[in-house]
Design goal:
With 474 residues, the protein is mostly helical. Helices cover 62% and strands 5% of the residues. The strands form 2 sheets. Strands 4-3-5-7-6 form a 5-stranded mixed beta sheet, sandwiched between helices. A two-stranded antiparallel sheet has the order 1-2. Helix 8 crosses helix 16 and helix 16 (293-311) packs antiparallel against helix 17 (314-326).
Length: 474
């Protein structure tokens, strides 16, 4: 497994997508003594009032992925460049998913061979293979969620080691995802049976997570933070300089309800693909039929994550949030499903096990190739544009983390409100370049298509998908 996980690293030549760029840049700055700060703005959610750069990092996202990558850069930076050092740190976490899954399978009653099969499938990850290697929270949450669930039988018996492991894992889940606290539902199911163990577990978790929330309290919660997660009518409101309001949300309730209905099928498909398509439904049925702490804990956490993402954080759920939050339940889904079909696997004289191994590797290869097909062309186009010298920093652009990575200079998200607010932001940060790419906010469609222009926006490059204007404010 270590060889496979390390072999993926050379294939991923950049972080890939906004979240991963963000985590990596914050990690690199932290490792190089610049504190937990960033010199770009990816959303007004982290920069209310347009403060001067650099700004405190991770006001919206959680810190675990950045902390792990920063440690990797600090430890391996003398031998590897920062990107490879961060990837190696994540790879070491991902490698640990395999033994953690083996432990979970054994505690669910699986024999050695079946436990080894489950550990292999979960460790490779199938369609999650590239996620386990991403500079993100996928692998950390998968490991921590698995350790938490594996500790539940010991917690029920009052075993101190399992209580400590469960508490540390739960605290880590909270530091990995904003909704990581939902993983606390698994140990809470044991409250009647083992109240002291549950309280002790929650106490350990609180000790682990408390410093982060103390830091947040000292910085102050940015205005509209909750509204940007739950009160979105359209997704671009998340990036607006003014946060969404309850009045605007209720005034568009028909649009809101339609969005929730439209999100159900994509969210179901996200669950299926995250759990290797067929194993997720089998795991659901198996968990309903079983009465042990692991199965019940997995079921309640899975249901809570799915329902909260679908119904409360709807527009975020269909843009990757649900996939991120489900990472912690994926290895246990593999185990529950394989334990449920063990008699069939045995009856096929291990042909089914061999097929599972081959299918897992095939899905992993497809996943890596799909990742490269989706993200490599955009990264190559950005690098070529930066190399041409046409985009001096600071720059206004939709995907600020990615452009900050390639420019190695400040990038500010284009405000979704349009050019009037863009002028204000450009003046505030001394921005002299506007870049629009496919996927820009709708307010800039006419400018991108050449249907409108402004005397203070001087076209520099209007051919090709990346279009550039010089900003000349008087």
């Amino acid at each position: 497994m270590a060889v496979l996980r390390l072999a993926v690293i050379p294939l991923l030549t950049h972080p890939g997508y906004s979240d991963a760029y963000y985590y990596f840049i914050a990690a690199e700055r932290l490792a190089h003594g610049q504190g937990l700060t960033i010199d770009f703005i990816w959303s007004a959610a982290e920069a209310p009032g347009l403060p001067a750069l650099p700004i405190p990092a991770l006001r919206f996202w959680m810190p675990l992925a950045t902390a792990i990558q920063s440690a990797g850069i600090a430890f391996f930076g003398a031998l590897l460049d920062p990107l490879r050092a961060a990837q190696l740190a994540i790879a070491l976490v991902a490698i640990a998913i395999t033994p953690a899954t083996y432990l979970l399978a054994r505690r669910l009653g699986a024999g050695r061979e079946l436990a080894a099969l489950a550990a292999f499938v979960a460790g490779v990850g199938g369609v999650e293979a590239v996620a386990w290697s991403s500079l993100d929270n996928f692998a950390p949450l998968a490991l921590l969620g698995t350790l938490l669930l594996a500790s539940l039988p010991g917690m029920a018996r009052g075993a101190r080691r399992d209580i400590v492991v469960a508490g540390l894992a739960l605290g880590g889940c909270v530091l990995a995802r904003a909704d990581g606290a939902l993983y606390a539902l698994a140990p809470l199911l044991l409250l009647r049976r083992a109240p002291r163990a549950v309280v002790a577990t929650l106490a350990v978790a609180a000790v682990v997570a408390a410093p982060w929330y103390l830091r947040d309290a000292m910085l102050g919660v940015p205005q509209g933070q909750l509204a940007r997660t739950m009160l979105l009518v359209r997704y671009d409101e998340f990036f607006r300089t003014d946060p969404p309001t309850l009045e605007r949300f209720l005034g568009s309730i028909d649009v809101v309800l339609r969005a929730k209905l439209d999100a159900f099928l994509p969210d179901v498909l996200t669950f299926l693909f995250a759990t290797l398509v067929v194993l997720g439904p089998i795991a659901l049925v198996a968990a309903v039929r079983r009465a042990d702490p692991i199965a019940r804990g997995w079921l309640v956490v899975t249901a809570a994550i799915f329902l909260s993402q679908w119904l409360l954080f709807t527009l975020h759920s269909t843009r990757g949030s649900l996939a991120h939050s489900l990472a912690g339940i994926v290895p246990a889904a593999v185990v529950l499903a394989l334990v449920a079909v063990e008699p069939w696997i045995v009856s096929t004289r291990r042909l089914a096990a061999g097929a599972a191994v081959m299918a897992t590797l095939l899905l992993a290869a497809i996943g890596v190739q799909e990742w490269k097909s989706e993200f490599d062309p955009a990264e190559q186009a950005r690098r070529a544009t930066v190399a041409s010298g046409a985009v001096p920093a600071p720059v206004l652009v939709a995907n600020a983390p990615a452009w900050r990575y390639d420019l190695d200079g400040p990038a500010i998200v284009t405000p979704p409100e349009g050019v009037a607010v863009l002028q204000e932001v450009a003046r505030r940060y001394g921005v002299r370049t506007l870049v629009l790419e496919p996927g820009h906010f709708a307010a800039y469609d006419a400018l991108y298509d050449g249907r409108e222009g402004f005397d203070w926006l001087v076209p520099l490059q209007l051919d090709g998908p990346i279009r550039i204007w010089q900003i000349e404010l008087r």
